[in-house]
Write a structure and sequence with these properties.
The protein is mainly alpha-helical and 294 residues long. It has 12 helices and no strands. The chain is globular and about 55 Å long.
Length: 294
């Protein structure tokens, strides 16, 4: 009998989904460059859905698409909650709004910070659900990084605390999926530095410099060290930046020391390091995440 050629390896559903999602990413970037931010976000969302659906196909479940739906629902419900927040909101009204939502959050403290505590939990839930939906596929990290960039660039969304919190969550999710995503690390560190979380910014940038980090990351690390008063480390980082190459994917316009100076406390006002996410009271009553329910 004739010799048959070896069978070609079957492409996995996730790899095929990634191949399909890549043109969507390119199209989303082109849309954002033309100012069509809403359409760009929808393209990115569909690309994420493609990957989540592929994971579902491979596992014969709806686990990953449910997680993705839960993430974006949490962002939407976060918007709903933010729209009614204000200094005069009563605790009863806050509880009624939260009770109408599907996002599971722990009971919030009964004080003047209760609404912000609730918002943090919505955003944290969304971040965790996005990481789950990605199923470890690193291309999803690039999609989430781009989603955050589009969110930040869209001036129609403003520069509210909620928009910034969403962007930070998206960057963190990107890094949790791919801990070597240097561009996401750089963007996250810049945002944290802008809001005075210099120790976290320093640690993230220091981790990003492990390996072949571009010049811009070293320059941002030097800026953070400078703001922390560590002149020696700042100079060492600047020296390293001269040896590194530039990366167009990492914005150079954000590396100036003045970027961090505008809203950052002075050296005497710098607070001790805080964990990336505030722990939730283990004794608080919490619903089971919706995507784990049958």
């Amino acid at each position: 009998p004739a010799i048959q050629p070896p069978a070609q390896p079957v492409e996995s559903y996730v790899k095929a989904a990634t191949r399909i999602a890549k043109p969507r990413l390119e199209y989303a970037v082109s849309l954002a460059q033309r100012g069509a931010y809403y359409s760009a976000r929808e393209e990115l969302r569909q690309a994420l859905w493609t990957i989540a659906q592929a994971h579902d196909t491979e596992t014969e479940s709806y686990y990953y698409t449910k997680a993705l739906d839960a993430a974006f629902l949490a962002f939407k419900e976060c918007d709903d909650l933010a729209s009614i927040l204000g200094p005069g909101i009563s605790r009863d009204r806050l509880n009624r709004v939260i009770g109408q939502h599907k996002t599971p959050i722990a009971e919030v403290p009964d004080d003047e910070h209760s609404s912000l505590a609730a918002l943090r939990q919505y955003v944290q839930f969304a971040e965790d659900a996005l990481v789950t939906a990605a199923g470890g596929e690193k291309f999803a990290a690039e999609l989430l990084y781009t989603f955050a960039r589009v969110t930040q660039t869209d001036k129609s969304m403003g520069q509210s605390t909620l928009v910034n919190a969403k962007s930070i969550a998206l960057y963190r999710a990107s890094m949790r999926i791919d801990d070597r995503h240097v561009a996401a690390a750089n963007e996250l560190a810049v945002m944290l530095g802008t809001f005075g979380q210099l120790f976290q910014a320093r640690d993230i940038l220091a981790q990003a410099t492990q390996g072949n980090a571009p010049r811009e990351v070293w320059q941002n690390l030097a800026a953070v060290h400078n703001r922390l008063g560590d002149r020696q480390s700042s100079q060492l980082a600047l020296n390293q930046s001269q040896k590194a190459t530039r990366n167009p994917a990492v914005p150079v316009t954000w590396v100036e020391h003045t970027t961090f100076a505008g809203q950052i406390p002075s050296q005497n006002e710098i607070q001790p390091r805080t964990p990336p996410r505030e722990p939730i009271d283990a004794t608080a009553k919490r619903k089971k995440p919706s995507w784990t329910q049958k």
